[in-house]
Structure formats: C-alpha cells, structure tokens
Amino acid sequence: MWDPLDVPDNGDVHFTDYSRWRLSEEDNGRHLWDYLESDEACEARPQTIIDKFMLGLPTGLPTLPPAKTALEAARNGFSFFRHMQASDGHWPCEYDGPMFITPGLIIGSYVTGMEFKREERLELTRYIFRMAHAEDGGWGLHKEGHTTVFGTVLNYTALRVLGVRADHPVMVKARGTLHKLGGAVGAPQWGKFWLSILNVYDWDGTNSLLPELWLLPEWLPIHPHRWWIHSRNVFIPMSFLFAKRFKAPEDDLILSLRRELYVEDYYYIDWPAQRNNINPIDLYAPHTSVLNFLFGILGIYEPCAIPPIRRAATNRLYDLIVREDENTSYQDLGPVNKMMNLVARSLIDGPESEAYAQHKLKRRDFMWIGPNGMSMSGTNGVQLWDLAFIVQALVESGLAEEEENKGCLLKALQWLDEAQIRDNPKHYESAYRHRTKGAWPFSTKEQGYSVSDCTGEGLKAVLYLQEHLSYTPKLISKERLCDAVDTLISFQNPSGGFASYELVRGPKWLELINPAEVFGNIMIEYEYPECTTSVITALAIFRKHYPDYRAADIERTILAAVKYLHAAQRPEGGWFGSWGICFTYATQFALESLSLVGETYATSARVRKACQFLLSVQKEDGGWGESYKSCATEVWVDHAKTQVVMTSWAAMALMYAQYPEPEPIERAVKMVMSRQLPDGSWAQEAIEGLFSKTCAIVYPNFKFSFTIWMLGRAHQYLEQLAAVLIP
Ligand code: LAN
To answer: Which residue is closest in CA terms to ligand 1's atom 4?
Structure first.
C-alpha cells in the first residue's frame, strides 16, 4: 500500500507548489513534466511562459492594442500563441477529458509496483477531486458527462489507491452515490476488468474474453485482426490477463475496497450473475441478443477450455503484446493498452526487466499536469495534429510571411521533417499493421502509427511551408513526399472513403458483438468525412506542385472520395462528425472537399443545402454552439452557449462553400473577436473533441488554430465579397 495522503476537503487549491513544475524541452515532441525539489534547481531552470500557461498561472504576456479588423485579431491571436511553441517546434497541450484513462494509470501502476513521486500522487488526486460532480460527488464517462458507475467506481478506487482515506469527505460523498447506483457490480466490462486486476472484483463476474479467437483462421470475418485497431489492441492484453486470471495480492487496501465498493457482502456475491449486469445509466450500446447468446455459450466453455489450446492462444496474445511494445517504443497505441501491456509485461518479464523499465520511462509521456492537477493524456500528445492546423492557419492568413513569425514556421518545418515516419513498422504484417512509410502520426514518430488524416494534414503542412513561403528550405525531398502520397492512396476503401488507422477490414455486423457497452461503432473501422477530406485535399495540393507523380491514381482517388462524401451527407444537409463535435466539425471538412471539385454554393444544390443547415443553427450572437450529445444522438443538439471553436468551423465551412452573403460570416467574426482576451488569447470553452460516439476529449489548441485560421481567411474573403458587391 502506498502511504496515506492528507489532502484538503476539495481540490480548489493546488496540492503542490505550482512554481516547481517544469515541462522539459525534448527534441522529438516528447512531453515530460518534472517537479523540482530544490530552490537552486528552480533558480537554475526558471519557469517558462509555456510552463506557466499550461499550469494556469499568469503568463505576464502584455496586453495588445485591441484588434479592429479580423486580420488584426488573427495577428493578436498568434502574437500570444507564438509563445506557446516549444523549442523543438511543436505546440504542446493537455489532452484530457475521458474519465476512465487516469484510473487505468493508477491501478495499472499500483498492481505492478510502479510508484509515483509524492507530488504526482498529490496532483493526480487533485485532478480527480476537481472532476467530481458537485451535486452527487460522482464521475462520468468523460469530464462533462453525467455520473455513471464506470466513472464513479474507477475514480473512487483510483483515489483510494493513491492514498486518500475512506473517511475523507470526497470519498464519503462519492461512495454514497456509488451505493445509490447499486455499487460496483453494475460497472461495464472495462470497469469490471480493472477491478478484477486489482482483486476487488471476481473474474467469475466477467464474460469470457476468449483468447482462442486469435487462433481462428484469418479469413474468418470475426478474426480480431479485422477489428478497429483500438478495440483489438485493448482486447489483446485484456484477454491475456483474463486468461491468466491476473490479480494483485491481497492487502489492507484491497480488503477494505471490497467492503467500500459494494452494497452487498463481497463474499456472498453471485459473480456469474453479474456478467451482464450493467447499470442502465452507463449504457450506450447494450448487449445484443446475439452477444448474450454467445456469452452464454462461452460461460459454459470457459471452465472446460482445453489447456494446450488455451496456452497456445495466450502465447499468441503475449507475442502480439511484445510486438506492439516494440513497434511503438513502449508508447503503445493509446493509454489504455499502454497500461494493460505494462501489467502483462510485468507479470511475464518481471519488474527487473528492460520491458518494465521502458514502460516506466514512457509512462511519463502520458502524465500531464494542468490547472486542475495531473491526468493521463488520451495519447502521448497531439503534436502533429495541432502543428499541422496551426501551420495552415498561418500560411492561409498571410501571417506566415510576417517577419516575426518566420522563425516559428521554420521550426515547425523542422519538426515535421523529424516527425515523418520513414519506414514500415519493425513488426509489420506479423502485427497486422498498416503501412507507415512516409506517414505522419497523430502525436510523435516514436509512437509510430500512421493515421490517414494525420498523414494528409502533415503533408499539407509541409507543402504549405515548402511551396508557399518565400524563405523555407525544401527539407523534405520529393521522394519522401511521394512516400506520403503512396501511404495516403493505400488508405482508400472500396467505398471511396477513408477510415482512421487502417482499411475497413471487417463487416458491419461485427458491431453486434460490441462488448464494451459504453462506446458505439468501435468494432471495425468506418469511413469518415473528416479523414476523407484531409487525404484528398492533401493529394490535390500535392498534384499542383508535382503533377507528374501518380496523376491518374490521384484523380481516381479524389473522384471516388467525393462520391463517398455525397453519399455521406445527411438529409438535413450536414455531415456527421466522429472525432470532433460534431456536425459543425465534419461539415467544415466535407465542404472543403467539395470545393476542390468546384462544388460551391453557386454550383451545387448539396452545398446550398449544407449552408442552409448551418445557417439554421447559427445563434443570435452570430456564433455556433453544439453539444457533444450530437455525436451520440446523431441529430444536432444545441449547446447552451456559443463556442469560438465551433463558430470558426462553421464560418470556415461557409467560406469553403463560397457563401455569397457576407453577413453570417461577419457576425461569426464579430463574435469570435468579442471573446478575444486583451493578451490575444481565447479562454477555454466547452469540450471540442470526441470518440466512439460517447466520450469527449479536449483539443485546447483548437481555440488558437481554428480561430486564427478563420479570422485570417475571413479577412480576405470578406474583402473579396465587398469587391464583387461594390465593383
Ligand atoms: C484519437 C485522436 C485523434 C483522432 C483523429 C486524428 C482526429 C481522427 O481523425 C482519427 C482517429 C484519432 C487518431 C483518434 C482515435 C481514438 C483515440 C486514439 C483518439 C480520440 C484519442 C483517444 C482515443 C483512444 C481510443 C482512447 C482510448 C479509448 C479506447 C476506446 C481504447
């Protein structure tokens, strides 16, 4: 057990000295926060403006002359944001939101004996305190979501593991809520999994995570290599640890949690009866009858699993775990499989192993301290994704040619040069990976996963920097750009659309066996308007500069993609977004694509319909505001307040469509300008991103990239419109 923490009744004040935290300046986009113990160390390494801003401390940046035009507002925005560029060229940020990720960090670390610094434990505690809902003390699936058993049981448990006493007021309140919800027995599968690992839930209470699935022939539609990469990569260590029935050794904390988490007596719970017990408050994708039937059969099979076959299957799983660790230098695909792989490696290789040491080293990449305390990030950062948008914003607004910004853009280009993945993965086909040669990842090269749209936006950013600016060297050769193009084309599906990390490999009916209960559309890849647009706009820009490379393939790819986009438009006129919220996000992308093939307000009924849809939801103050709930319901759900990020997306959409009236865009510009703070920044508003239909995630740099981009473009667009209207 870790020693108890004496912490205040709430997280309103910092639990550590915030003037001692520093974000280290690494070369390759890695984010590592240090807590400096001594005054001398602090003096030797004073806090930077970035440290202060990320921690929510006053930055001391000056008040700027108020902007009178959209361009001045964009310029002020970047005068501020320029200071947030790390020395290696990227823009770091927090990446929190999901409330099931940080508990995985804490429980996974505890069961493997991987300790935290005391200060880290304190700020992890404060973060969870700060995220508790004021009314009932519970936690949701994500930080803006309603209280659920999943959120509450995992965060409650995490706090206890961190060392908070059971009689602390935060715990008393949360426990009351958990008990009102019926206790931990009603947790969804992923909650049951972490509780089983910690030995405060019985493995008999989870449905079988059939390891033998990996022994099936690959041509079978159900074979897990066909699943969405995140589901597959979480399923692998989960299934492995299930097969091993891994559980932490009992200690006082575990014995006590067995009393705290349940309404009934732990030792009398009918575990098999809990397998399909999920509190309705948590449910988004309830088990289908097909799944329940299969789980019924597996329940009978499990006790008689044939040992040599089970062993072969677990060996196979372990091999895949090792390959994943080695392919990603222990960053892993995401934070969930990262912590599960750690538990598996610690079990097999032991705490003295190189694998354990590497996992420990890379665990730091996910631990981010922000104004609310410390949390585990949704990935090891948003490096490439943010950088690519900021670069495009600066080039399109013209700010990139301004003297004071040139150094930033040169550094951004160097970062892109370093971040491009130059080869296919070490374990390639053997780990069922898609090609990576020439790709850009979402975060860092080390993590090493190619994503279709990240490669698209990365390529666009490079082309903008190398081809559109007067002062940049051509760091990335034609050959490397062509590698990126080859990867982009390799991502196209027969429908013409593009998915995220891989081609769509499995049939849609696999969704019938989605066991996760709280997420939707996670079993296979799907085509997305957002990913499709990033790819084809990149290809279109590429061919302008390199018309001789695979011209016919590029033309074919774009035309097929546009066909997919036509088919994906919703009857109301918008496009449904899966990675940002929601219709404003995806409609912006889709209209960018359609503008490529000359489909604009003047020429296309679909584009007119899309504009009308957007205008029908523009609010009184000229802005747009959409709730994350749109993503779950698949119909527009208004946010009570307008948001600068969504307003920027919607205004960008209207400009891509070449909407002929200036008024709605002018109103959007005014609204975004009215929210700009005296130092040129914008305050954080509601959450912007989302995944798997239900779970929101923050993109704090969007409030800079998309505002600056929209303001810069609007400045030019409105001038052009005025010139047409008043010749
Ligand atoms: C992300 C973040 C980025 C996102 C985009 C690039 C925006 C998207 O267009 C493609 C998919 C991708 C890469 C994506 C996939 C799912 C991620 C990795 C996340 C939303 C960040 C966190 C999330 C991951 C699945 C969280 C762990 C949860 C599980 C359900 C495994």
So the answer is: 579
